[in-house]
Amino acid sequence: MFAIYFGIISxxxxxxxxxxxxxxxxxKFAVLIPARNEQNxxxxxxxxxxxxxxxxxxxxxxxIPNNCTDNTAAVALASGAxxxxxxxxxxxxxxxxxxxxxxxxxxxxQYDVFLIFDADNVANSKFVSSMNQTLCNDxxxxxxxxxxxxxxxxxxxxxxxxxxxxxxxxxxxxxIRIGFSARVIGTGFAIKSTYLKELGGFNTTSITEDAxxxxxxxxxxxxxAFCEDAITYDEETNSFKKxxxxxxxxxxxxxxxxxxxxxxxxxxxxxxxxxxxxxxALVQLTFTYMQALIPFAxxxxxxxxxxxxxxxxxxxxxxxxxxxxxxxxxxxxxLEKRLVxxxxxxxxxxxxxxxxxxxxxxxxxxxxxxTVHWTEIGHTGTPTSLTDQDITESSLQHPSQNxxxxxxxESCN
Length: 413
Prior knowledge:
Elements: H1 2-11, E1 29-35, H2 42-50, E2 59-65, H3 72-78, E3 82-83, H4 93-106, E4 113-116, E5 122-123, H5 127-135, E6 141-148, H6 155-177, E7 189-192, H7 193-199, H8 209-219, E8 224-234, H9 240-268, H10 275-292, H11 294-304, H12 307-335, H13 343-357, H14 359-368, H15 388-394
Parallel strand pairs: 1-2, 1-4, 2-3, 6-8
Antiparallel strand pairs: 4-7, 5-8, 6-7
Helix pairs in contact: 1-6, 6-12, 6-13, 8-9, 8-10, 9-10, 9-14, 10-14, 12-13
């Protein structure tokens, strides 16, 4: 049933991106960048935002250091950002955002929009102008397209890139085409201050503030727009072990969100304004619990299966599943124009079914052992020795690497 539901919706991704009306209105943006020990990469996102194709006086950049033990705040100040030091009791990203938004909403400065990034991100040069256009087309929350910044650096990073491309197309573009809400995944999203005032601030309490805020929007019948022309490039870990730690946090956090918001989402099913958004959110979020049960069902089937099934049918089923996921990986890279000739990209495509399969045991483990603390992944960022021309050519990657950003976009030029 889940497969049929997701499969039918995914078909609408082939209809192309939704067109928007042009606008002459210019909104004022406050960019929020929570950061913990990110002195190596914080300069990259600040430089990108200062080179946006948008009036500079309408963009204020705020870095929010959170329990840092390095020079994140000093580097951010030197790069031209404001610094809002989070209190010591703030231990996670959602808490840092809550602190900053509450402070700025009460401040004398009037911001129309709060734009949220991670410290390791970079963005294309028309990110803010594209978000401005989307938000001026009756949206109060908007999600950007997200891609891996270092997609050719390792097979693990390539798998993240395929994962994000899949979400861009089959999750968000498809839903926007049928009038549903996009989903906030990770970073690079915008919220109008009017909506935050209605909510009483950014009041998330879980370690996956993106999934929780998505659920909050669904409960309130707030449609999240998908701004495809705004692109966020996210730096991914090259370590498979660290990717497992990170994805375990994602899965555990989403499961926690289901517990926190299940009753509210169920109640929202009986309200005209929110019923379709709440239903879709319930299907997406509870899917993690359904997948968590797969190992138990698989073991039971093995114990009760006939020998002919184990010898003949099961291996063919596994092979078909592998080839299906492999085909989808190649398809999304082609559709997102991310398929390039590289050893690591090739390995990433071949190993992507394994990468996806690893989500299942992580979800199963999360049934019994929740992740309650944020674990630092660590980012390398952009070497400060790069010139602006180097940044454009290398797409904010290491000098020895050559990233493949979207061919129709430029990063920080």
